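Predict the 3D structure for this chain.
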Amino acid sequence: QYRMITVVSHPHLVDFSIFRLWNDGADEVQALNDRLRHENQPEWESARIEAALRCEISDQYRLFTNMERFFDEPQLFSTQPLFPLDPQTEATLIEAYYEFNEDVFRELLGKKLTARLRRDLEGISTKTRVSLRSCQRQFDNLSRICRIVEELTAPVPGQDPCSIAVALKARMHFSAELANKYTQVALICDHRYETFKRKSLAQAPFGAYSECAREMIRMWSSYGSIDPDEALVEKLHEIKTLLHSDREALDVFCVLSTEKIRGLVDVPTATKIAKVKLPSLVKTLLSIGVALSQPKDHRDFFVEIADRLGDPFRRAPLAPSEVLILLDAVTIAFQAVPAVQRCTEREQAALQERIRQQAALAAIQQTQLQCAAPISPLADSALAVLKTPKPPRFISMVSAWLKYLSVMKHCLSLLYPFILSSP
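Done. Predicted structure below.
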């Protein structure tokens, strides 16, 4: 005679300690050995405990393997009837499945996520001491998220854009923290930023680049995109044209920056910082900024920071805190440049003229309405334009400069220590 005991659970019971082992790439034998090490049972019960654990692990591994296809599209979890899970378990599994090892992701930053790279993951596995299966899972997850982010950044007619992180959170059922992390990594992978081309860049950890990407998205990206805002780059072009075409304006800018430095630090430190040639620094900053519109040049963004900014600072030599003081002075001094302020005077005069025209056209419109005459199409279109006066050019230029320098300071604060220590 045979006796069969059947246990049915609804929803499915998930052992998260076993899921962690499965997710990390351990096979069933390795998982069993790991669990046995944590069991503290009498020796005479060890055989029975081992048999029970082997059965439980086998059952859980089979469950996870069958569920894995739903992790590709977490939205399907809420509609599929095969593996009923309570919402908390579902959220925990998705979050754990998409967790990543920073050392593994650091090896993938800036590289093209191709099938060839996936075949070469064994080297990354050896270097990071992470199982090959776990490296493959993380690689596949990152490739999937990058494709989804690319879809989310594509404009949809009639649909208002939203934050990429918010859209990713809704689609993949991520926590806000995990969605932000993947958005930052997707930015670096999408633009294929070089992070290994220089020894100093190769030494920087994943966290440094992730923080750089976070600030770039916060300050540079427009809503519904991870690319630099076109309006920001246009203003940087305008600033470059202004300072390059007017040598006096550039000289005044440098003098004002020097005065700001003297007001922030003592004389010896100011003298040390003054070794950096400010005209060259300003031109370099603007050159890097306007290149943001060129995908090929954009890819070398971190290389440009290391070579064209980091190396001159290191030769001065400036400490990290002194670099930030210098950039703070350049940031503050810009709005005091007379050539930039003159933009305000011209813009204010133009704004007043538009207001005067608006009042005149409104009077004409009122007269035509009283006479029951049709409104002139020309006057109607002019009114539509004038009802929304554009902000002064000065404000938009200063705003663009502040946003741009904010990211540059943030990136240098994170990467310059590695530039300083590299031979």
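The two ends are 78 Å apart (CA to CA).
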